Amino acid sequence: MPDAVLHLEKLRKSFGALVVTDELTFDVMPRELHAVIGPNGAGKTTLINQISGLVAPDSGTIQFAGRDITALPTHARAELGLARSFQVSSILPGFSALENVALAVQSRAGSSFRVLGRAAAEAALNDPAMAALADVGLAERAHIPAGELAHGEKRALELAIALAMQPKVLLLDEPMAGTGREETARLVELLRRLKGRFAVVLVEHDMTAVFALADRISVLIYGRILASGTPAGVRADPRVVAAYLGDEME
Amino acid sequence: MSTTLLAVQILNGLQLGVLLFLVAAGLTLVFGVMDFINLAHGVQYMLGAYLAVAFYALTGSFLSALVLALAAALAFGLVLEFAVFRHLYDRDHLDHVIATFGIILFLNHGVKLVWGAAPLSLPMPELFSGSVRLAEGLVYPVWRLVIIAAGLAIAALLYLLVAHTRIGMLVRAGATNAAMVSALGVNIRRLFMIVFGFGTMLAGFAGIMIAPILSVEPGMGDTVLILAFVVIVIGGIGSIRGAFLAALLIGLVDTLGRSFSVDILRFVMGPSPARTVGPAIASMLIYLLMALVLYIRPTGLFPAKGR
Amino acid sequence: MAVLLAASPARPRGRLRALPACIFLAFALIPVVAPFVGGGYLVSLGSRVMIFAIAAVALDLLVGYGALISFGHAAFIGIGAYAVGILSVYGITDALVSLPVALAVSAAYAFLTGVVCLRTSGVYFIMITLAFGQMAFFTASSLAPFGGDDGLTIAARNTLAGLPLLRNERAFYYLVFACLLGTYLFCRALVGSRFGRVVRGAKENPVRMATIGFDVYRFQLATYVIAGALAGLSGFLLANATEFVSPAYMSWQRSGELIVMVLLGGLGSLDGAIIGAAAYLLTEEWLSRVTEDWKVIFGPVLVLVVLFARGGLIGLTRDLARRLARA
User: Fold this and answer.
1) How many CB pairs under 8 A join B and C?
2) What residues of chain A lie within 8 A of the CB of C219, using their CB?
3) Coil, helix or strand for B35?
4) Would you call C193 and A108 a contact, using CB atoms and an 8 Å cutoff?
5) Per-residue pLDDT of chain C (327 residues; tens, 9 = 90+)
6) ipTM given for this complex
């Protein structure tokens, strides 16, 4: 599609004899929340890793905001506006929550080759960072070392870091993983508020969250998109029900 | 440059390669299975030589000295493992480097205090002390051939052990994913001890075998240590096969490089500059080789953990 | 299986904030106190400690803040020293030429080798830095016109803009002091700066830093070059102090000793590097009078430090202070 902000064309990845991504073609529109669901082992995290650049596909192309980023290194993709969160919280545990986010702001601001001047005291970096933390409800925990945050708070911090990058596309890899019911509800509320600011690719197992948030859903089975469409459409699709949703919706 | 000289140097290169393999095998296994950087492996090689000299003085027999020294070296290695190393497996690499560096200092100066700084020698067994005529004009010391044969035999034995026994399978699994092996219920501590002890014996054995040819002195393990690390880095960490191939490669490159660097360079530059630049390039050759390999394959040629 | 190195804060915390001031005050006072307690010997020992402290602080940038364990750091000291030596053979003896050359050559070597080294990580990084250190060592050993294995004696210390100022022990001492102070302040600023924060972040989680948009490689390379240049400064001063250069300045054992100095004082604190250098060199001075083989004692001490005093001397003092405060 011409105006898709993220377009994957015939992406293919195998690890030895195991084909994890199988001629996958996939689109994300500029401000939609596009959920990707599928059973474990369907290749969802590998897909996210290929989009963000941590894993190189064997063949196929990835287009982002009109540019071919297939060969671009991870940091360059991030600079262009591609942000991601990790399935297992990946933060800087020794830095405070604020500093974690401030680093993302710093990356956006450029000129990181400054060798003098105390970065931790810069309002230009801290103010937007505090704003992002407030967005995710972590404002009071700003100065706690990130390693000491509760599990759900770390997931929120990941979101704050991604937000601070002012992304065009946000890749969320199972943000609700391991969170209790209350925290899940909070994260869903947060994502609902953020919807429409930018495109979101949401990989999730929690079907309640997916159906509450998604504009479109794609079902990934054995590395291929089985079906793609509105939540209602996907829910009713007999192939999807047979292959995946049948048990999930019990 | 005659073919005889070339043949002799090739054999010397093989002998060095085999020696490096004996030292590197233990090193790569310990690193691969336990993720432990053991800089003290070089002094274990040195200790083997010193113990052999000491036991020879007591028994007068090379064979007894060999057996006793191996046993003593193994015992010492196990004590080290128990007292120091086992507490460091969970620490980061820097801690390994510093602690084993401390052991190097301790042993290098310790042997100087016990045996003095003067180089010692170990006579080789009568039976193998001569030279043998391998071809027209090619005479080669028997002992060096013994070393090559012993090394190849041990390489074959290691291959059999690692590829065809249960213990070997555990070692290979451990080198690929130690946490998983432990989670499967294997007594990982015992496995570590066995791997470590075996590696120690190999290093000690190498030291004992080379003692009749080189002089036994403090610090003799330092160069071998660095070469062994170059071997395992090029060969790929955790891989016996990689260590074997890399050891032979390095043995040959280093020996042939030192012998023929001046001659080869003479074709590119004049004889006088070749004589100055040659030896310098020769000593750097293996490091250039390692840098090249790492540039193309940042984790070595056959790493156990895959690329 | 390996536990990640703990985060290195940008600034010293709590009571230890006064530490740098104490250290520099102590160094500043040595030439004043010296005539009463041993004379010139103390001053030259102090110079030597400060010279190695500069190299140790530079190494702490790499090891303590960047988690880049360089086992070839001594090479840059040697390069800086040889710059002085080689130039003096050709009659160029002014510091205004020798110093920039020393800095430039060590920075250049750091850049060229860093480009290759930083493509690797973990033990491969350690080995390849060792390899490049060895290459420098062997090159120096083979330079027959400049002494080769035996080294090169320099006729006299560098002049400063034509004036033989450095020949005065006190003047030289305070020059070294100024260099150490400058190095320390620069590194302290660097560590807390935007640049430093990226390097510290990369130590904790390089993948995260890449996904935020930082090209970690470039930052690490810049740090590597800075550390190399500072070690070159140390070498320049060392050559002038001893009026002698030798390949031994670049041996891998020397590189190991530098890492020990940094660890002994306390990784990732800069102050620790200075304290560690002082502790190591003073121990060497003192114990080598007792026995030439003092390392047979020092070796086990190192092992004990690693096992029980992971934070080095600074860590120990901090623990002690905490325990006293609780009592």
Assistant:
1) 144
2) 112
3) coil
4) no
5) 333 445 566 666 665 677 888 889 989 988 888 888 877 888 999 999 999 999 999 999 999 998 899 999 999 999 999 999 999 999 888 889 999 999 999 999 999 999 989 988 888 899 889 989 998 998 898 888 888 888 999 888 888 888 888 888 889 999 999 999 999 999 999 999 999 999 999 999 999 999 999 999 999 999 999 999 999 999 999 999 999 999 999 999 999 999 999 999 988 889 999 999 999 999 999 888 888 888 888 899 999 989 988 888 888 888 888 888 876
6) 0.88
Q: Which residues pair with A203 in a beta bridge?
A: A36, A173
The whole-model pTM stands at 0.89
Could you give the angle at the alpha carbon of B261 between the alpha carbons of B256 and B264, nearest 5°?
110
C274: left (phi over 0), alpha (psi -120 to 50) or beta: alpha
Residue A194 exposure: Cα atoms within 13 Å on the Cβ side? 30
List the single residue in B34, B178, B280 with the smallest CB-CB distance to C142. Answer: B280
User: In this complex, which of C193, C212, C215 lies closest to A114 when CB atoms are compared?
Assistant: C193
CA-based nearest distance B149→chain C, Å? 30
Nearest CA in chain A to C191: A115
The DSSP call for residue C254 is H
Give per-residue burial for A84-118: e unless 16+ CB within 10 Å, then b.
bbbbebbbbbbbbbbbbbbbbbbbbeeebeebeee
Q: At what angle do helices B142-164 and B188-210 cross, to 10 degrees?
A: 170
Distance from the A214 Cα atom to the nearest Cα atom in chain C, whole angstroms? 24
With contact defined as 3+ CB pairs under 8 Å, the chains touching C are A, B
> How far is Cα B157 from Cα B174, in angstroms, rounded to an integer?
19
Decide: B140 and B8 in contact? Cβ < 8 Å: yes
Strand segments, DSSP code E, in chain C are 152-153, 244-245
Are C2 and B110 in contact (CB < 8 Å)? no
What residues of C are in the A interface, CB distance below 8 Å?
Answer: 6-10, 189-190, 192-198, 200-201, 204-205, 207-216, 219, 222
